[in-house]
Amino acid sequence: MGIFRLSLLLLGAVQASVSTEISVSLDDRRFFLPSAYLNKLYFISRATFASFGLARATCESARGYVAEIDNLVELIFLENFLTRSDVAKVYVAGTDAAFDGRWVSQRTGATRNVFDWSDGEPNNFNGQEECIELIKSRQSRMNDIVCNNPLERPNVLCEIDLF
């Protein structure tokens, strides 16, 4: 058993020096080595999941949430992170279950506006694809996927706000 330990020392100066230490521990039996970007830590589960709900619970058990892509720079970082990983595909936040074509965060309900869909996606195949995955073999681009499908079983990409 091992634990990833990430400690960051953040320094800021506004008429005084401020120091904050952030410590995050992740069980390496459950997650691959994390990667930090700006004020967030990203990590991929070792397990695969038959449903988005189970994937979300895994992120929450590590005090995080399913990765929410907020801007193009973050999207490129996450696509590269997946490309360098040992997994084929990962859930990321986003659903259009309430209104087809209007993608929102499952956690906050905020509209998702940043996309890099694979060719022909989203296609809402059989009217059932209401979640999002990134697929490594498609240059880590997006695909809409059934939220509860034991045949697909993506890993999950989680994030934690560091500050």
Task: Note down, in words, how this protein is organized.
The protein is mainly beta. Helices cover 14% and strands 36% of the residues. It has a single domain, classed as Roll (Mannose-Binding Protein A, Chain A). The strands form 2 sheets. Strands 3, 4, 5, 6, 7, 8 and 9 form a 7-stranded mixed sheet that branches. Strand 3 and strand 4 form a beta hairpin. The longest helix has 13 residues. It is globular.
Q: How do the helices and strands line up, and which of them pair or pack?
A:
Layout: E1 3-13, E2 17-27, E3 35-37, E4 40-44, H1 52-61, E5 65-66, H2 72-84, E6 89-95, E7 129-135, E8 141-146, E9 155-161
Parallel strand pairs: 6-9
Antiparallel strand pairs: 1-2, 3-4, 4-9, 5-9, 6-7, 7-8
Q: Short description, anyone?
A:
It comes from Biomphalaria pfeifferi. The chain is mainly beta and 163 residues long.
The number of domains is 1
Instruction: Look at the structure and give the CATH class.
Output: Alpha Beta
Strand content: 35-45%
**How many β-strand runs?**
9
CATH architecture call: Roll
- Please trace the helix and strand order, writing H or E for each element: EEEEHEHEEEE
Instruction: Return the average pLDDT rounded to an integer.
Output: 89
Main sheet: strands, sense, barrel: 7 strands, mixed
Question: Roughly what percent helix?
Answer: 10-25%
Shape: globular
Low-confidence stretches: 7-19
Q: In the CATH scheme, what's the topology name?
A: Mannose-Binding Protein A, Chain A
Looking at this structure, what is the CATH superfamily? Mannose-Binding Protein A, subunit A
The radius of gyration is 16 Å
Count of alpha and pi helical runs: 2
- Gap between N and C termini: 28 Å
Structure classification: mainly beta
